[in-house]
Design brief:
Blueprint (H helix, E strand, L loop, with lengths): L1 E5 L11 H14 L4 E7 L5 H6 L1 E4 L10 E7 L2 E7 L1 H4 L17 H18 L8 E5 L5 H8 L11 E6 L7 E2 L20 E2 L2 E3 H8 L2 E4 L2 H7 L2 H4 L3 H6 L4 E3 L29 H12 L9 E8 L5 H13 L3 E8 L1 H13 L4 E5 L3 H10 L2 E4 L9 H8 L2 E5 L2 H6 L5 H5 L6 E3 L4 H15 L2 H13 L5 H14 L9
Parallel strand pairs: 1-2, 1-6, 2-5, 6-7, 7-11, 11-12, 13-14, 13-16, 14-15, 16-17, 17-18
Antiparallel strand pairs: 3-4, 4-5, 8-10, 9-10
């Protein structure tokens, strides 16, 4: 089976969050299921070397933004199709915002062209390769399913490929003024509540939800939440109306890249049979973050964007409880200016107890997972989350809010779960500072029972966090939507 991914990021080439990790890892897992994936990406400056090394395979006509070409290249085990359009993508920094943090004013053209290119490839194919399924990831690819269907006369709108749209985070909806519709090749007649209109604006994400054959999101828990007003952000109605076409398929992680037994970012590699070696990583973290050594209380860590969504303001409120129990905290992240300032102030107020590095450092994130005892993820909402999966893999027990994919992947260390030998971490609800502080209390109390804590670490490390089951689920979904495949609805 042949599938085209359309996405705005893919690790390690360009990454702002977990979307990039999924787009990079899932095609490799699908290959084991007999699915051949090509990944269509914008040719950002970071991909200039791949563009130079690649082969031009097409010059799609009438794409938004002017002259473009498609360049094929294989790198990092992935078959990439790069949309080379310097006028749209040749600019520094973040893929979505300028140096001041404002959205690029032509984002509708930049990602409209991406969607149009995806629809073009699905319709025309490339040198004998034609996708049976177009898989659009998040709002940036949302126009691809719509244009594949709407770019044909009404009498011939049967798509040449099945289509899937995946919601990675519904908070990002791709909203633009209605005046951009003519530039994007969309029929004005579909600017209506049943189409791509959303409160008087064009929504790329809604276009992807309306015209895709199937909709997925990144965990079963988040799928249930998205059909409620609290989490659906105005899209709960359309998702509830398509509940028969909507499912949650849990994300996984790339096991080769996240393997404590062979991770070059660790001071000492280890397995569940050699947990004592983790102490060398813990000592390295203490030195790196200027923390005082302590054996009778856990070393907590955070690897996160510093935003309210991630609950890092709640952790600031709960910090006195963590420190009062003897805990220490190492934090790596960046984000909202007020939270960055708040965490810098916390480190200054508690030297030796709180260490903070503002920014992102991939090897350091691995060392944090490989040396800390417990990773804190107090998100107000979390579609899936990958950080807790890394924590499970590395025996860094996750302490998470009971929401979305966090609730789907971490088994709370309540009395019943401990007695049954199934607990892998800690959950708390509601998502408040007091509930978070209570979960920190529970973690500190359990840490005092070192045999019980180490038993839970070993269970966590055995917990399945790879892509195998989810890749099989995607393969089954593709079989259902691909034209002329057995089992596809008429």
């Amino acid at each position: 089976m042949q599938v085209l991914f359309v996405a705005s990021e893919c690790a390690p080439f360009v990454k702002t969050g977990g979307l990039a990790d999924v787009v990079a890892a899932l095609p490799k897992a699908l290959a084991a299921e007999g699915v051949s994936v090509k990944v269509l990406l914008p040719a950002y400056p970071a991909l200039a070397g791949q563009v130079a090394a690649g082969e031009e395979v097409a010059q799609p006509k009438r794409l938004p933004g002017g002259r473009t070409r498609l360049v094929a290249v294989r790198d990092q085990g992935l078959d990439l199709l790069l949309l080379d359009a310097p006028a749209l993508y040749e600019r520094p920094g973040n893929p979505y915002v300028d140096a001041t943090g404002r959205d690029w004013p032509d984002n509708h053209l930049r990602f409209g062209a991406l969607g149009a290119a995806g629809a073009w490839v699905a319709r025309h194919g490339l040198d004998g390769w034609r996708p049976e399924v177009l898989h659009a990831h998040d709002w940036q690819a949302g126009l691809a399913p719509a244009l594949l269907r709407l770019g044909r006369p009404a009498a011939k709108r049967k798509a040449t490929a099945g289509t899937v749209t995946t919601i990675h985070n519904i908070a990002f909806q791709g909203l633009f003024p209605a005046t951009t519709i003519p530039e994007l090749g969309l029929p004005p007649s579909e600017f209506r509540i049943e189409g791509f209109e959303y409160h008087g604006r064009l929504s790329f994400l809604k276009a992807g939800l309306v015209w895709a054959d199937r909709i997925t999101t990144v965990s079963p828990g988040y799928a249930r939440e998205l059909m409620t007003p609290e989490f659906g952000l105005g899209f709960e109605g359309i998702l509830a109306s398509r509940r028969d076409d909507f499912s949650g398929i849990l994300n996984g992680i790339e096991l080769d890249a996240w393997d404590p037994a062979g991770d070059p970012a660790l001071v000492a590699t280890y397995s569940e049979r050699s947990l004592a070696r983790r102490l060398r990583n813990r000592a390295a973290l203490e030195r790196r973050f200027g923390l005082e050594p302590a054996e009778d209380a856990p070393l907590f860590c955070v690897v996160s964007r510093l935003t309210r969504q991630k609950g890092l303001d709640l952790l600031l409120e709960a910090l006195p409880r963590l420190l009062g129990r003897g805990g220490r905290l190492a934090l790596l992240g960046s984000g909202d200016a007020d939270l960055e300032a708040g965490w810098r102030a916390a480190a200054a107020a508690h030297p030796g107890r709180v260490g903070v590095e503002i920014g992102y450092d991939e090897p350091l994130s691995h060392l944090l997972q490989g040396g800390a005892d417990c990773i804190l993820i107090p998100s107000r909402f979390e579609p899936c989350g990958l950080t807790q999966l890394y924590g499970l893999r590395y025996g860094c027990l996750p302490l998470v809010a009971r929401t979305g994919g966090l609730a789907d992947t971490v088994i709370d260390a309540n009395e019943a779960a401990i007695a049954a030998d199934v607990a892998t971490g800690f959950q708390f609800a509601p998502v408040t500072a007091e509930a978070l502080a209570g979960a920190i209390d529970r973690a500190c109390s359990l840490y005092a029972d070192r045999p019980a804590w180490q038993a839970m670490m070993r269970r966590a490390m055995r917990h399945p966090v790879g892509w195998q089951r989810s890749a099989a689920a995607y393969r089954a979904l593709y079989e259902r939507v691909a034209p002329d495949r057995p089992g596809r609805p008429a």
